[in-house]
Amino acid sequence: MQSINHIAIWGVGAMGSLFSGYLSAVAPVTMVGNWQDQIDAVRREGLTIHHVNGSASRFFPAITQHPTALPVIDLAFVLVKSHQTSHIAAHLARVLSPSGVVITLQNGVSNLDALTRAVGAERATQGVTAQGATMLGPGEVRHAGAGPTHIALLPARAALIEDSIALLNQSGIETTATDSAPSLIWGKLAVNAGLNPLTALLEVPNGGLLETPQRTRFMVAAAREVEAVAAALGIALPYRDVAAHAMNVAQMTGHNISSMLQDVRRHVPTEIDAICGAVVQRGVQLKIPTPVNAALLHLIQAKEQGHPPTPAEVYRVLSQVA
Fold it and tell me: What is the pLDDT of residues 209-228, one digit of tens each?
């Protein structure tokens, strides 16, 4: 295995914490972010992960809000919100080794482009993860659900990426290489568009979307629009039935609080632009109608701006387009 001297993980929220904790048990890891309460808690007491089976473990990754303090990085994972990618990319480029690689595991479809502009196409690749995590408070995260992680190999960095996959598996994060990253990315986008905005608007866990036929209809309609846009791009989703898959994910992660609902509750910007916004933008370009995603985009934007729609208003607006 190629020597990986140091790993940096950009993002100190739920997913960044999950990956940082597990990887810190098998390699030197530094978390990078700006959430001061999280930084203080991890420095003081370490990072506690509550596992799916109900047990808990404490990990001790390094953590900083100053990227310039990092050593030269061989491997970087990006798990910040999509709207932060362009900002952190320049910092990342300054500390990434000339022979290093950065891997985005973020939601959305445009993060790799921002990273590639900063570090070069030969040093950036993308992946998708089905892991789920929820912050319980500073320094404490619940592993809400295990699922596979896939990372696209890059010819110029194949050995290093394969070694990163080996480390992830060694840490307990099931990971494989893939040659179908676009399919996986759009497959996850369909699920995110179906589940995340609705759970954030109605303030229910994922399983709450299966409690009424109306909620399920809205969820499936949003996911099907993503499938239509992907098809126009020549991308087949990695499952046969988008409706069945979205419902299965909602059921399997029934108690999970979506990342968008977590953001709403913390009063921080959501990833709605990178999810529904990206679908609407590409739909316009391809002349594919995406009225449900457009409605979800506007409803979440209103909520972010301090004008939260009531559930009745959400149902009324979506009933007109779904």
Answer: 999 999 999 999 999 999 99
Distance between CA atoms of residues 14 and 48, nearest Å: 11
What is this structure's pTM? 0.91
Cα–Cα distances in angstroms (integers) from residue 184 to residues 3, 85, 128, in the given order: 29, 20, 7
Nearest-CA neighbor of 10 among 60, 64, 58, 47?
A: 64
Beta-carbon contacts of 81 under 8 Å, excluding residues fewer than 6 positions away, are 11, 13, 106, 263, 269, 270, 271, 274
Phi, psi of 60 (to 5 degrees): -135, 60
The model's pLDDT over 282-302, given as tens digits with 9 standing for 90+, comes to 999 999 999 999 999 999 999
Other Cβ atoms less than 10 A from the Cβ of 190: the count is 29
Distance CA 296, CA 196 (A): 10
Closest CA to 224 of 212, 204, 239, 205: 239
Question: In this structure, are strands 140-145 and 132-137 parallel, antiparallel, or unpaired?
Answer: antiparallel
Domains in the chain, start-ordered, CATH in brackets?
A: 7-179 (3.40.50.720), 182-319 (1.10.1040.10)
Regions in the chain scoring below 70 on pLDDT? 1-3
Burial of 14 (0-12, 13-18, 19+ CB in 10 A): buried
The Cβ of residue 46 has, within 10 Å, a number of other Cβ atoms equal to: 17
In tens, the pLDDT along 26-52 reads: 999 999 999 999 999 999 999 999 998
β-partners of residue 126 are 104
